[in-house]
From TrEMBL:
The keyword Repeat applies. It comes from the Eukaryota. The active site is at H433, S435, H575, S577. GO terms for cellular component: cytoplasm. The keyword Transmembrane does not apply. GO terms for biological process: apoptotic process; DNA damage response; signal transduction. Transmembrane segments: none annotated. This is P53-induced death domain protein 1. Coiled coil: none annotated. Residues 767-862 form the Death domain. The record marks F434, S435, F576, S577 as: Cleavage. Keywords: Leucine-rich repeat, Repeat.
């Protein structure tokens, strides 16, 4: 396989500009043109100019992202000697950096005449059905169709009698043909990440199969016939819906790995549960079956509640219900959850690092969901689905729901699902109590119970890492957790600037007991990359022990007995923490390890400050991970302009920073997140670190523009910033991160400068809304009017004004856009001043008109009003006391 996929020498052009097929290019009759963006064009030129040599090619690679692929396909049947054909997509990337699928949807029928073809790779394409010509390839041994859109395989798929390897991962297969059992010599079968709901019994006829991957499907059971696969060594069934597995799997003579993680197994046959090669993490073992199932409740006519964005509560009765929130969160309350009607309150909160404590290497993927009443125990488990930002760039990690008990955070057993229509990811968990919930990505955690008899714990990230607990290691059973952070040689070299430095994966061990083990625990770690027992220089190898916070790293090489095999280092310890193998000539290795550890936790980011083209006073501030800067700017370039992003800086997940406007620019109005003109931000790599605000200047702008700036500083918002802070931006103790220019243009005489009567206009005093939900005043409406611009007619219609009213306003104030906007907005306000829901109608109209920016500004004003109202009530002692609210405040 590796030989077939290797790149040969390149084809080039001669001195005359005509393509040549150099002898070196056809070494071993290989032609690799997928490395060229115009590979198909080169192939067509070669075929036209040197046909005699091209038809002898045995190994051909082309990119299916090439626009000339269709023309090229017609030539393929002429290559009678072809043994390996690769027509993969994924060579081009979209604006977000994701691989683009190839344009291949079929193959010419005559491709079936390639009698020598043994290897065909058409992955990362747009195939919805398998081309029929493939079934006529008599010598085909390896077939790869992964990352397509196949929903089924042909009924006569088993006619590929010589097939030894087949991969169809990442398709949409719902079932398999019975003929799949006729693939008598098949050795490896990968059907992972499809939509399979059942397997035919004939799968048990694949007697030469050594590896079978069925992970990431919808299987609730597997046939007993799998026990016939006597050659099977590895069986992957994780991330399905399995509720049972046949005990006969444990009797397979060659099986060395059975992965059953993240299923719905509540009981497992003892023969399987006690097998050392079985993975069972992520299953609800020992739990009782919920009744009914969340996805298919057996109670007919179960009540379904769909809540709008402004609602914050609903009622649960003994009949149960399904509840869907506008933000994408939904719940399932089975019948009997509550014996009496119970009012449930909910709200989403911006994560605050003061009380949302992320552990090292955790990544936050959602906002915080608070559910009340706290502490009430339900009679049935309530199931919750939380949408989250999919961590596409995070590998070898797992997604969990984290909840706060009032004392500490803990992780719930979580199942990751993907919505069928939207393809969005959700985290699914079950709870008996309500509190605070959020979704995080963490290092994969393997855990086990250590009894007096001892046990063995492997890492699922790197099976070469294992921990052996000997008999007598503990008097009482204790829980042990293992996490591994892989570290590449490239990362080590980049951070240390030393090509000679190497390090093993970083191992973290923890337990639920404060007592050291009674006997030494044996740990096996792989040697650093490029180091083996044959070339090992022991003077360069260091075993480091770090504290749980990674602040100190001690070299304990001389304190333990290190044993070496060809690939591993083995040592014994009695207490748990971080362990790390380093191979280097450096002496002060502890300091280097601390530096590398900190850098591994950091993200490279850039700051952007953009001004809206139609309204330069509207400023967008955002902190963007480095790899997302270009697609973010491309998305915003039609509506915003501004300077180039700042230089790259490094930040921790959950780190606070703030922005302050300087040199004659200030924020236009009060905001809950603004303290004395400074905006607080919290960096979370997978959430939007963005705020859109309006700025102004106390400087007279009639004569000239104001050239100011916005600066970003590390840390929480301080009480005061020295006036010369902009001049003290260097040195290790500097809080300054970046500064970007902001320019406010010279003002033309406008109504906005005079909020009083203007050319016959007088603005009556207004208080839209109510005290409890927050008012919109005359001054607020004037500020909003400044932002409306040419969208005023659309906004007016969405507010409920008639076409005749809009036309009359336009005619009466012709040639004066400012007056048209004011007339429209205050006409609506006077008509609706008695409507308590008028503010929500204004927000909705702005959203429907495509002015999310104004809608956000109105919501900010209203939220500030609510806060001031609650504070005033609290000061006069009228607020109803609540023990749950007190506990929430104490927690924060």
């Amino acid at each position: 396989m590796a030989e077939l996929l290797g790149l040969g020498d390149k084809c080039g052009e001669g001195t005359s500009g005509a393509p040549v097929l150099a002898g070196s290019c056809l070494a071993d009759n290989r032609l690799n043109l997928d490395v060229y963006p115009d590979g198909c064009h080169r192939f067509l030129q070669l075929f036209e100019g040197r046909r005699g040599e091209v038809v002898q090619v045995e190994f051909l690679r082309l990119s299916s992202n090439d626009r000339l692929l269709g023309t090229t396909l017609g030539i393929l049947p002429h290559l009678k000697h072809l043994k390996s054909l690769v027509l993969k997509g994924g060579h081009a990337r979209d604006e977000f950096g994701s691989c683009q699928y190839g344009s291949l949807t079929s193959l010419p029928p005559d491709v079936g005449n390639l009698r020598c073809l043994t290897h065909l790779d058409i992955s990362f394409n747009s195939l919805s059905t398998l081309p029929s010509c493939i079934l006529h390839l008599p010598s085909l041994r390896m077939l790869l169709v992964s990352h397509n859109s196949l929903v089924a395989l042909p009924e006569d798929f088993g006619s590929l009698s010589k097939l030894t390897f087949f991969s169809a991962m990442k398709n949409q297969l719902k079932d398999l043909p019975q003929s799949i059992g006729e693939l008598a010599v098949l050795q490896e079968l990968d059907l992972s990440e499809n939509a399979l709901e059942f397997l035919p019994e004939e799968v048990g006829n694949l007697r030469n199969c050594t590896e079978l991957d069925l992970s990431g499907n919808r299987l609730s059971s597997i046939p007993d016939s799998l026990a016939n696969l006597k050659s099977l060594r590895r069986l992957h069934l994780h991330s399905n819906l399995l509720v049972t597995v046949p005990a006969s799997l444990a009797s397979l003579p060659n099986l060395s790995r059975l992965d059953l993680q993240n299923n719905c197994l509540r009981t497992v046959p003892p023969e399987i549960q006690t097998s050392p090669f079985v993975r069972l993490q992520g299953n609800p073992l020992g739990e009782t079956e919920p009744s009914p199932q969340a996805d298919e409740p057996s109670a007919g006519g179960l009540r379904r509640l769909f809540l709008a964005s402004g609602e914050d509560s609903f009622t649960v009765t003994s009949e149960g219900c399904k509840v869907f929130l506008a933000c994408g969160i939904h719940f399932y309350f089975p019948p009997g959850t509550a014996s009496d009607p119970l009012q449930i309150y909910f709200r989403t909160l911006t994560p605050d690092p003061q009380w949302v404590k992320l552990r090292h290497h955790d990544v936050l993927l959602s906002t915080v969901l608070e559910l009340q009443p706290h502490g009430v125990k339900f009679q049935q488990e309530v199931q919750i689905w939380l949408p989250y930002a999919s961590p596409q760039t995070l590998h070898q990690r797992e997604v969990v729901v984290r909840t706060f008990s009032g004392q500490s955070w803990s992780d719930l057993r979580t199942r990751v699902e993907q919505k069928r229509k939207s393809k969005k990811h959700v985290a699914h968990c079950s709870v008996l109590h309500f509190s605070w919930f959020l979704v995080v990505s963490r290092l994969v955690q393997n855990e086990c119970k250590v009894p007096t008899e001892g046990t063995l714990l492997f890492s699922s990230v790197d099976p070469n890492i294992k921990v052996t607990f000997p008999p007598g290691v503990t008097e009482e059973t204790r829980n042990v957790k293992l996490q591994v952070l892989p570290v590449s040689a490239e990362e080590i070299e980049e951070i240390t600037a030393d090509a000679g430095c190497r390090a093993s994966p970083l191992l973290c061990l923890s337990q639920d007991s404060l007592v050291d083990f009674l006997r030494p625990v044996r740990i096996q770690l792989p040697l650093p990359p490029g180091v083996t027992g044959l070339n090992l220089d022991r003077s360069r190898l260091h075993l480091l022990h770090g504290d749980l916070e990674g602040q100190t790293w001690d070299d304990i090489t001389s304190q333990v007995v290190l044993e070496f095999t060809h690939l591993y280092a083995v040592f014994e310890v009695t207490h748990f923490s971080w362990y790390w193998l380093w191979y280097t000539t450096k002496t002060y290795i502890g300091g280097i390890a601390k530096k590398v550890y900190e850098r591994l936790r950091m993200y490279q980011v850039n700051f952007i400050a953009l001004q809206r083209k139609k309204d330069p006073e509207q400023v967008l501030l955002q902190c963007v991970p480095k790899h997302k800067v270009d697609p973010v700017l491309k998305k915003l370039q039609d509506r915003y302009r501004g300077p180039e992003p700042s230089d790259m800086v490094e930040m921790f997940e959950g780190e606070q920073f703030f922005a302050t406007f300087e040199r004659g620019i200030c924020i236009d109005m009060d905001r809950p997140d603004c303290v004395d003109g400074r905006l607080l931000f919290i960096f979370y790599s997978h959430l939007k670190n963005m705020k859109e605000i309006y700025v102004t200047s106390p400087v007279d702008r009639k004569g000239q523009a104001v050239k100011g700036q916005v600066s970003f500083y590390r840390g929480a918002v301080p009480e005061s910033i020295p006036e010369d802070a902009s001049r003290r931006r260097k040195g290790p103790d500097s809080l300054w991160l970046a500064t970007l220019p902001i320019k406010l243009p010279r003002l033309k005489p406008r109504w906005a400068e005079n909020p009083g009567p203007l050319n016959g206009f007088s603005f009556p005093p207004l208080n839209l809304g109510n005290a409890e939900t927050g008012y919109l005043t005359q001054a607020n409406l004037l500020s909003i009017a400044r932002r409306v611009g040419a969208d005023w007619q659309t906004i007016g219609l969405n507010l409920g004004l008639t076409y005749q009213q809009i036309e009359r306003i336009g005619y009466n104030n012709r040639e004066d856009l400012d007056k048209q906007i004011l007339d429209m907005l205050f006409s609506w306000a006077q008509q609706n001043s008695e409507d308590p829901d008028c503010v929500n109608k204004l927000i909705t109209a702005m959203k429907e008109s495509g002015r999310q920016d104004i809608a956000d500004e109105v919501e900010t004003i209203i939220e500030l009003g609510r806060q001031k109202y609650r504070e005033s009530i609290r000061r006069v002692g009228l607020e109803q006391e609540s023990s749950t609210e007190d506990s929430a405040i104490a927690m924060m």
